[in-house]
Amino acid sequence: MAAEPYQPTDRRPLASRERKVWQRLAAALAARNVSPNFISMAGMVIGVVGGCLLAATRLVQDELAQRLLWFGGAAAVQLRLLANMLDGMVAIESQKASRLGELYNELPDRVSDIAIIVGAGYANGAMPVLGYIAATIAVLTAYVRAVGKAAGASDLFLGPMAKPQRMFTLTVVSIVMAVSPERWQPCWTRAHASWPAIGLALIVLGGLITIFRRLNRIVVHLRTLG
Fold first, then answer.
1. Could you tell me which of 65, 167, 44, 69 has the C-alpha nearest to residue 122?
2. Which residues contact 12 (CB under 8 A, 6 or more apart)?
3. Are 98 and 6 in contact (CB under 8 A)?
4. How many CA atoms lie less than 13 Å away from 155 in the CB half-sphere?
5. How far are the Cα atoms of 136, 152, 177, 185 from residue 163, in angstroms, in the given order?
6. CA 183 vs CA 57, 91, 177, 187, 200: distances in Å
7. Tally of CB atoms within 10 A around 51
8. Quick check: 23 and 89 in contact, CB under 8 A?
């Protein structure tokens, strides 16, 4: 008797997963025997590239080149998220979901988070210290979720600053920096902090709230166990 295919027990709820275009793309990738783990690793590479593009905005003086870097960073962030979604969809479609696959899904995610957020900290108009703090908090939110999952708690993808919201914040900031006139870009402190610094500050604040909410959910679950 054939063993039942492994089914992931805890998947992030994503409305975009139900869109026909992504379902067809996942089916096409599965039909071509593309490995879900390869997609996970590709997403990590794209995330690292995205972080480098964001950081490079501080290094160039040419306005057009800087705007193109902001656009490139925004595109890389979204492609990273697409890869994060497709790896699981392809794994389910091709019946290649596995416990090892969950490891491939989690660790590259953390590398991408750190690369993108730290890169954003070095971007023009940001502050490196905010990037490091935001990246640390992003990893902590994932750590708390993993601890909760191990304890048997469910529905631990709540925000307000889970991964999709973090990446959405940085995408919006990048597009604003790419298209807005310089006079629309506020400037505070000697570090010339602007919209990127505000975005990172929001990630820090929202991340702390997210950690508290997830911890509270775990505590409630553990108390129900007696």
1. 69
2. 157, 162, 163, 164
3. yes
4. 5
5. 13, 21, 21, 26
6. 17, 47, 11, 9, 21
7. 30
8. yes
Confidence of residue 162 (pLDDT cuts 50, 70, 90): very high
**Domain locations in the chain?**
16-225
Distance CA(106)–CA(120), nearest Å, equals 21
Assign 14 to helix, strand or coil. coil
pTM: 0.93
Contact (CB, 8 A) for 48 and 112: yes
To 10 degrees, the CA torsion angle through 82, 88, 89, 91?
140
166-203: per-residue pLDDT in tens?
A: 999 999 999 999 998 877 777 766 566 799 999 999 99
Helix (H), strand (E) counts: the chain: 7, 0
CATH of domain 16-225: 1.20.120.1760
